[in-house]
Structures are given as C-alpha cells and as structure tokens.
Amino acid sequence: MISRLSSAPRLQIHADAEAMIQAAAAAFVARAQAAMDAHGRFSVALAGGGTPKPLYELLATAPLRDAVDWLRVDVFFGDERCVPPDSPRSNYRMANEALLSKLPIPAANVHRLHGEVDPARAALAYEQLLRAAFRREQPRFDLILLGIGDNGHTASLFPGCACLRESERLVCAQYVESQHEWRLTFTRPLINAAAAVWLLADGAGKAGILADVFGGAYQPDVWPIQYVAPHGGDYEWWLDRAAAAQLPDA
Ligand SMILES: O=C1O[C@H](COP(=O)(O)O)[C@@H](O)[C@H](O)[C@H]1O
C-alpha cells in the first residue's frame, strides 16, 4: 500500500468498528503498562468527537478498567471547543462522562483545557501546565489520540488556519471560520514529539478523506492531518473496513 505521507502510518484495519475499538482498547492497556514499566507513569492526550467515545466506554468497564493502574495515568486533552465544561459540545464533558468519572483516577491527574476562559489565556496556561508536568522544554506524550474530520482536520487543526504553521508554541488558540468558534489545540511540534500517535476513524463517511490524505498529493494546509509525522514515535491508524475501503489496495 503506497502512501504519499512523509511519515506513513501503520494501518490497523479491523472488520468493524466494534472490533477496532476492542483491539485499540487492548493496545491502550498494553501501552499504558509499557510506559509505566519504562518510566513509572503513562501520559495520554484524549481526542474529542464521536469516534473515541466507545473506546472510552470500554476502557471504563471491567476487565479493562481494572487492568490499568489509573493512579499512575496523567490525562490531558489534544483539543477543546471554547465552551464551558458542562456544554454538550465540550470534549472534556464527553470524555468525563464516558471514561474519567468512572475511573479510580485522582482529580489531580486529569488536566482539561479551559474552554470557558479567554482562548489566548487558556492556551498559554495549558502550555505552561504541560511544560511543568513534563519538566522539560519539549513534552513527549506516551500516547496522543487523534480523530479526523471529513475536511481533513485533526485535533482542532483546521484547513487554512494560522496555527498550522506554529513551530514554537505547544498549544494554540484559533478562531476557526468554518466552525464559527474559537478552538484550543495541540500544535504540530507537540503532536509530532509524542512516543505514539493513534488516529481513530470508522465508518464509510471517513473513507474518502482517509484515501485522499493517505494516497493523494501532500497538501497539509488543505488536509492538516498530513502534518502529523511523529519523529521517533509510532504512528498508527486504527480503522474499520468501511473507513479503509478506499485506501489504495485495501
Ligand atoms: O472537532 C473535532 O472533531 C474531530 C473528529 O471528530 P469525530 O466526531 O469525527 O470523531 C475530533 O478528533 C476532535 O477532537 C474534535 O474536537
């Protein structure tokens, strides 16, 4: 299978969304354990949207919930809509309801993006929090979860946005014209420094954009997901057959 991406992802294609989520959940548990074995803790950045919700629900359910030492997990968010945390549009709210509120995880281990305050201040505060939490200039997540929109956006890196060009900041505030709202998002440098980046996508509705970004021209300002290219990290696409249907030779 030929990709035009600068860093081709490893494809994990499963029969259907349920099988994909089950495999991703088992791999999540294994990756958490491996990180804890290697350096004592596991840092993960969650994605929003509908795709990862069943993964979060599965991780919140025995036996997987009990297979992770949540006391040693640090949870962050890769992006957020600039809304209060109790808004139905809040990524934090979705992850909290599906996963976090059901885990024996200390509140101090969960770090949400503050979508309810001034966006520029919220982005700067989160960047400072990340630098302090990782105690290094360039934080390196053990795992960053991403989704993809049918316009090729990932996290809240949308087509044509100025934050796509960001090379210094870890977190940006961005007014997204197409969404008519402010967003907070991890930047390219932060995403690409991760030890692992997983993109989750399922359903026929994602097939066209996945084929475009995988095998089409390299035009990351149009399809921001193409900027994802972890250097020194694993890059995996977790897909069901419907989402993978238009990938070359799939
Ligand atoms: O706006 C967003 O959309 C993407 C994709 O969402 P999905 O519903 O198609 O899974 C998501 O990854 C991102 O976190 C969210 O803010």
UniProtKB/TrEMBL annotation:
Catalytic activity: 6-phospho-D-glucono-1,5-lactone + H2O = 6-phospho-D-gluconate + H(+)
Top EC category: hydrolase
Gene3D superfamilies noted in UniProt: 3.40.50.1360
Keyword Metal-binding among UniProt keywords: no
Enzyme Commission identifier(s): 3.1.1.31
InterPro entries referenced in this protein's UniProt entry, alphabetically: 6-phosphogluconolactonase_DevB, 6PGL, Glc/Gal-6P_isomerase, NagB/RpiA_transferase-like
Alphabetical GO biological process terms: carbohydrate metabolic process; pentose-phosphate shunt
Keywords: Hydrolase
Superkingdom to which the source organism belongs: Bacteria
Pathway membership, UniProt: Carbohydrate degradation; pentose phosphate pathway; D-ribulose 5-phosphate from D-glucose 6-phosphate (oxidative stage): step 2/3
Residue span, Glucosamine/galactosamine-6-phosphate isomerase domain: 16-237
GO molecular function, one term: 6-phosphogluconolactonase activity
Entry function: Hydrolysis of 6-phosphogluconolactone to 6-phosphogluconate.
Record-stated family: Belongs to the glucosamine/galactosamine-6-phosphate isomerase family. 6-phosphogluconolactonase subfamily.
Name of this protein: 6-phosphogluconolactonase
Species, as recorded: Rhodanobacter glycinis
Phylogenetic lineage: Bacteria, Pseudomonadati, Pseudomonadota, Gammaproteobacteria, Lysobacterales
Gene that encodes the chain: pgl
